[in-house]
Every structure is written in C-alpha cells, then in structure tokens.
TrEMBL record:
Keywords: Hydrolase, Magnesium, Manganese, Metal-binding, Mitochondrion, NAD, NADP, Transit peptide. It catalyses: NADPH + H2O = reduced beta-nicotinamide D-ribonucleotide + adenosine 2',5'-bisphosphate + 2 H(+); NAD(+) + H2O = beta-nicotinamide D-ribonucleotide + AMP + 2 H(+); NADH + H2O = reduced beta-nicotinamide D-ribonucleotide + AMP + 2 H(+). It comes from Nannospalax galili (Northern Israeli blind subterranean mole rat). One of its GO terms (molecular function) is metal ion binding. It comes from the Eukaryota. The keyword Transmembrane helix does not apply. Its cofactor is Mn(2+); Mg(2+). NAD(P)H pyrophosphatase that hydrolyzes NADH into NMNH and AMP, and NADPH into NMNH and 2',5'-ADP. Has a marked preference for the reduced pyridine nucleotides. Does not show activity toward NAD-capped RNAs; the NAD-cap is an atypical cap present at the 5'-end of some RNAs. It is found in: Mitochondrion. The lineage of its organism: Eukaryota, Metazoa, Chordata, Craniata, Vertebrata. Its main location: mitochondrion. CDD domains: NUDIX_NADH_pyrophosphatase_Nudt13 (cd03429). This is NAD(P)H pyrophosphatase NUDT13, mitochondrial. PANTHER family: NAD(P)H PYROPHOSPHATASE NUDT13, MITOCHONDRIAL, NUCLEOSIDE DIPHOSPHATE-LINKED MOIETY X MOTIF 13.
Length: 341
C-alpha cells in the first residue's frame, strides 16, 4: 500500500485527457489499465485515510494488494468490476475508486465489515465532511470526484423507465439499461454562489445548520430552465430581498455536498443606497453586511480547518477548500486595490 502526499492532482496533460477518454470508451483497455493502476478505497462513501500529524494521507492499493485483501474477506476479484475510473497520472497510471461498504440491492457482493477492514489496512474510513477540513486541495478534488461517482452508481442501479437493473461500463462513466438501451450518465446539480457587495461591505449569511458563528456567501440551486444570471438574481431576491446590479463570474468548483454540485461563483453589486436586507427566515437564520476590516480579521483566523472555533471568535468564514472562501478573499483583494488606486 502506498501513500500520497497530495502531489498527484494537478491540471491534467493533453495525454492524460486522451488516455482517460480511451479508457471510458473501451472496456478491455480499462480492464487492462487496472493491472497497473491504483485503487482508492471507500466504505459507505467514506474514504480510507491514514492519520498523519495534523492531517491525513490517502492510501492507495495496487491490483494485487486489492485482490489479496478481497481474498482475506472471502470475495473474488470480480468485485473489482464495481470500481470506477477517477483519474490518471501523466505516466498513464490509471486511478480507480471502489466502495467495499455499500449495500446495494442489485449488488452481487456483500458489504465488508468496516472495523475489520480498518484493522487490516491500518487506516480509517472517515466521513467526507470530517476529512474536508484537513485534506489538501489536490487530494480532496480526487476524493470528491470518486465519492460523487460512487454515490451516483449506487443510486442509479435501476432504469427509471423499465425498472430493470442497469449495467455499468468498466470505467463507470455511464450505465445502460439492457432492455431498452437507455444510457444514463453521471449528473451534477448547478449551484450559484454569489458574494454581494455595496462597494465598501460584503453581504454574508448563515443557515441554522452551519457551525456556530459561520457566515458564507449566498448560495442556491439553479432552477430548471434558468441561466446563471437569472439564478443569481432570483436567489439574491429570494434570500435577502435585494436587486443585483452588476454581476461578474469568478470561478467554479465541484462540491460533494449534498450530492454532487457544480458551484458557479460570482461577484455581484447592489444599486447604491439599496442595501436594506430582508432576510428570508425560511432559508436563512441571519444575513448582514460586513466591512472589509471585519472580513480581513475573520480570514486571518480561518485556516484549512474550523477547529479554532470558540466563544471568543463569533464570526467565522468557510474553510480554504470552499469556493466561498476564495470569493471572499478575492473581494478583499479587489477592495484593497481599489482603495489604493
Ligand atoms: N463550496 C462552497 O463554498 C459552498 C457550497 N455550498 C453548497 O451550496 C448548496 C446550495 O446552497 P443552499 O443555500 O442550501 O441552496 P438553496 O438556497 O437552493 O436552498 C436549498 C433548498 O433548495 C431546494 N433544492 C432545489 N434543487 C435542489 C437540488 N438539486 N438538491 C437539493 N436541494 C434542492 C431544496 O428544497 C433545498 O432545501 C449547499 O448544499 C451547499 O453544500 C454553500 C455555500 C458554500
Ligand atoms: Mg441558499
């Protein structure tokens, strides 16, 4: 079993994109790639991690190590066909993810016992929410992809038209209904996330489910038929009763919660003088305007974790891995340069 320190996930090369495309299209090539590939393990959608100092390392198994592990638990190599392709290195080492703890109704294989697996692997299956606070951005990207794909397969075992079990291709990039040939592809839900500004202050809000003291940018799922601009205007109006004036795209991020979302992050401004917030209490617990100084102080306190949260620090911002954090940081930098210009 080898351990990675987060140096594996960076922008893929041209060859890597082409190789992954080939493996998705060709079941035989994908099966062959498993022989020299590496496997990331999950148990009921929780990734296998190994505690190291203040963070986690991500263990990976070779095919023979995985076969040996399955053998110890009385399962054959056929189980490996449930794995999904999640990436590759520039050296064409394909990476796969396999969940040994899902109890799918159509799966031929039983779920393996978590604590025995952990003892055997000398590592633990940690929920993604807990892991999120300590993983680096490279590892988290790969694990987010893996979890999203494993979750999608688990919940798309049957054709919604015929009711028959669907069949996964080797890479796990699609499922097909054998009776009517309908092809199902993994899906993400688009979500807009907007940092609203009145020039000097930015608007942050919190839901009652957030950790104590945590405020974030306004977020909301796109409605069917909406474009990004319409979704931003609607969400801002719905949640805080304000009119968006100018809108600027910033960046995007795949986010695993609650299922699999594509977060589309934007900066927006309100018309001068139109800043009175009307909080929609069905959606939010609170919303308020924060000055640049307040935000700068809170950013200084936000590491990659929320662990420093305590009574003395009532105002906290999302962790570094969240695109909300990047939006807020960008706003601080922009207001700083406009102040000095
Ligand atoms: N990565 C980041 O920086 C951040 C990510 N987020 C994510 O954005 C997501 C959306 O934000 P919310 O304010 O909760 O959205 P929201 O304002 O649209 O409200 C959620 C409600 O929308 C409805 N809804 C419509 N389509 C849905 C779908 N496809 N899946 C689930 N619910 C749907 C449900 O009734 C749900 O209760 C959150 O799940 C959160 O994980 C939120 C803030 C920061
Ligand atoms: Mg919302």
């Amino acid at each position: 079993m080898s351990l990675y320190f987060g140096t594996i996930f960076r922008r893929k090369s041209f060859w890597c994109y082409r190789y992954l495309f080939e493996l998705r299209e060709d079941n035989d090539a994908c099966k062959k790639a498993q022989q020299t590939g590496a496997f990331y393990l999950f148990h009921d959608l929780a990734p296998l991690l190994q505690a190291s100092g203040r963070g986690y390392l991500v263990p990976r198994l070779s095919l023979s190590e995985l076969e040996g592990l399955l053998g110890k638990f009385g399962q054959g190599a056929q189980r490996i066909e449930e794995s999904v392709l999640i990436g590759c290195s520039d050296q064409h080492e394909a990476w796969f993810a396999l969940d040994l703890g899902l109890n799918s109704s159509s799966s031929k294989h039983a779920s393996l016992p978590k604590s025995e697996l952990e003892a055997e692997l000398k590592a633990s299956f940690i929920t993604m929410r807990k892991a999120l606070l300590q993983l680096n951005s490279m590892d988290s990207s790969l694990l987010f992809t893996a979890q999203a794909l494993l979750r999608w397969h688990d919940s798309h075992q049957f054709c919604s038209k015929s009711g028959q079990p669907t069949i996964k291709n080797m890479a796990g990039s699609k499922r097909v209904c054998p009776s009517n040939k309908i092809i199902y592809y993994p899906q993400m839900a688009p979500v807009v996330i907007t940092l609203l500004s009145d020039g000097a202050r930015c608007l942050l809000a919190r839901q009652s489910s957030f950790p104590k003291g945590l405020y974030s940018a306004l977020a909301g799922f796109c409605d069917i038929g909406e474009n990004v601009e319409e979704a931003v205007r609607r969400e801002v109006a719905e949640e805080v009763g304000l009119d968006v004036e100018r809108l600027q795209y910033s960046a995007s991020q795949h986010w695993p919660f609650p299922n699999s979302s594509l977060m589309i992050a934007c900066h927006a401004t309100v018309k001068p003088g139109q800043t009175e917030i009307q909080v929609n209490l069905r959606e939010l617990e609170a919303a308020a305007w924060f000055s640049r100084d307040e935000v700068v102080t809170a950013l200084r306190r936000t590491g990659s974790t929320l662990q420093q949260q305590n009574e003395a620090f009532p105002f906290l911002l999302p962790p570094k891995l969240a695109i909300a954090h990047q939006l807020i940081k960008e706003w601080v930098e922009q207001t700083c340069s406009s102040l000095t210009a």
